[in-house]
Amino acid sequence: MTSLDIVRQFLSEMSAVEGVAALLILVNVWLITRRSIWNYAFGIVGVAIYGWVFFHAKLYSDMLLQVFFLVVQLYGLQQWRKSRAEAGEVVVERLRNGERLAWLAGIVAAVAAWGWLMHRLTDASFPWWDAGVAMTSVAAQILMSVRKLENWWLWMVANVLSIGLYAAKALWITTGLYVVLLGLAIWGLARWQAARHEARA
After folding, report:
1. φ and ψ at 152, to 5 degrees?
2. N or C: where does the chain have the smaller number of CB atoms within 10 Å of the terminal CB?
């Protein structure tokens, strides 16, 4: 196989729908790093499209995750509006040490339970790996919705897991998206830490 054949195969495996979803999610996360409430407009549409993409890739945990994201996006929009109304901006908060340990234990238990269900009840590809992405993302999304700084650490873990998973499924646009999202998560953490320090000062 020549290099030109490899490029052609790579392009043929890409989906225009996947590309649109990836672009929407990139804008969504970029706006989150800036604590802009407009992130939700792009996020809601992006996760709806990705639900369809993951269904066709038989990544059922990720498909169901998009449904969850739709619900939590609406909850997050309410929380961010409330914070902005009360403080004039979206205020960044942190978890206490005990809360961090509780979240970590919950994620581990959720990955084990969900991975087992996907393995036993479906024909899911990589059920445990997919469960790791899904449950870490669930926790990250909830923490982001309530403006906790730790959400960015969890997004970094989820993004690293996602890069390998989507490459294994030849979802190349999505693989590239998660490489960029990893960078945005690092940047988002830095921006939210700076905002928290400024607020406290």
Report:
1. -70, -35
2. C
Sign of the dihedral through C-alpha 113, 119, 121, 124: positive
pTM of the predicted model, to two decimals?
0.82
Q: Residue 180 is encoded by which pair of tokens?
A: 């960029």
For residues 140, 141, 146, 151, the Cα torsion angle rounded to the nearest 10 degrees is 30
Neighbour tally for 105: CB within 10 Å = 10
Hunting for tokens 């914070």 — which residue is that? Answer: 83
| CA dist 111 → 129, 131, 144 (Å) | 9, 5, 19
Note whether 163 and 178 are within 8 A (CB). yes
pLDDT digits (tens, 9 = 90+) for 104-113: 999 999 999 9
Give the helix ranges, DSSP H, for 34-171: 39-56, 60-87, 97-121, 127-145, 151-168
Compute the half-sphere exposure of residue 34: CA atoms within 13 Å on the CB side of its CA.
11
Specify the residue for token string 């993004």.
Answer: 159
Taking only the tens place, the pLDDT of each residue in 84-138 is 999 888 899 999 999 999 999 999 999 999 999 989 988 888 889 989 998 999 9
Instruction: State the Cα–Cα distance between residues 54 and 125, nearest whole angstrom.
Output: 11
